[in-house]
Amino acid sequence: MEPDNLVLQPRDVHFDWAELPMHWVPEEPVTTHVMNVLHLLLPAGERWFVRTFQQAVPLITDDDLREDVLGFIGQEAMHAEAHSEVLDHLLAKGLDPRPFTNRVEWVFDRILGDRPNLTAHRQREQLIERIAIVAAVEHFTAYLGDWMLNATALDRAGIDPTMLDLLRWHAAEEVEHRSVAFDLMRHLDRRYARRARAMLLSAPPLLWLWIHGARFLMAGDRTAGRLTLRDFRRAGRRGLLPTGHDLFRAFLRYFHRGYHPKQEGSTSQAVAYLATSPAARDAH
Ligand SMILES: [Fe+2]
Ligand SMILES: [Fe+2]
Fold first, then answer.
1. Beta strands of 90-199 (E only): which ranges?
2. Rounded to the nearest 10 degrees, what angle do helices 29-56 and 229-237 cross at?
3. Which bound ligand lies closest to the C-alpha atom of 184?
4. What are the tens digits of pLDDT across the range 115-159?
C-alpha cells in the first residue's frame, strides 16, 4: 500500500568524505565518474530549482500543493548542499571541478535565470516554462532514484557505503517528492504541449552535460583512462549504471497522455529506505 498523505520533510544529513577513495566503486572508474557527474550538476541545478519554486509559491492557490512545494524546496536545498561537499572532497584529492561547475552555473544563471526586464505577463510565462523544465528533469530524477534504490549490483560491487547512503538517501527523497514539480506545472498550465516541449528542450542538453561531465572528470583523474561507449554499455549490462535503452524508454514515457510521476517508483520503498539510512537516521 502506498502512503497517500506523506508530508515532505527535509532531513539535515551529514556525510564524512575523509576516507572516500577516488574510485568509490572499486576498479570501476567509468561507473564512478559517470555517477560523479551528479555532484557536478546537482548543486547548481537544484539551487536553481529552489529559486524557481520560491518564485512560484505566490502563484499557488491550493494549500496542499503549497505545502508540498515548500517541502520540495527544503529537500532540494539539502541535496545541493550534500553534493557540493563531495565537490570539496574531489578538489582536495586534486580533481578540480570548478572549470566545469562554473560553466554549469552559467547555464542556470544566464540561460535559465530570471528575466527582470520582461513584462509581468512574459515573466509569468517564463516562470511556468522553467517549472515545466524542472518537471521534465524530475521525471529523470524519479526514474534514476527508483533505479538507484533497486541497483543491487552496486552493493555486490563493494561500493563505498557512505556514498551509497548519499545516493540512496537522495534517491529516496526524489521518489518521495516525484509528483510535486509535475503537479505544480499542471496547476499553472494543463496543456500537453507545455509538458512535451519542456522535455524536448531539457533532455538533449542534459545528455550533453552528462557526457561532457564524465569526460571532464576522467580527463582530470590520471588513473582513469578515457570514457568510451563500450565501457558505458558494459557497466549497464552489469547493472552498475542504467542502460541507454532504459533511459530512452523512460524519456518516451513522459510523452504518454496519461503519464503521472506516481507511475514511476514506489513511495513505500523510498520511505522504508529513509527509515534505515544511516545519514537520515542521524539527521536532526
Ligand atoms: Fe534532489
Ligand atoms: Fe527532486
1. none
2. 90
3. 2
4. 888 888 999 999 999 999 999 999 999 999 999 999 999 999 999
Distance 104 CA to ligand 2 centre (A): 18
Cα 246 to Cα 143: distance, rounded to the nearest angstrom: 10
Sign of the CA dihedral 152, 138, 180, 250? Answer: negative
Output the nine-digit C-alpha cell for 206.
542534459
Number of the ligand closest to the Cα of 169: 1
Measured in Å, residue 82 CA sits from the centre of ligand 1 at 10
What's the 9 CA to ligand 2 centre distance in angstroms?
Answer: 13
CB 56 within 8 A of CB 66: no
What is the pTM (predicted TM-score) of this model? 0.95
Contacts (Cβ under 8 Å, ≥6 apart) of 254: 136, 139, 195, 196, 199
Alpha-carbon distances of 151 from 13, 154, 155, 266, rounded to whole Å: 22, 6, 8, 14
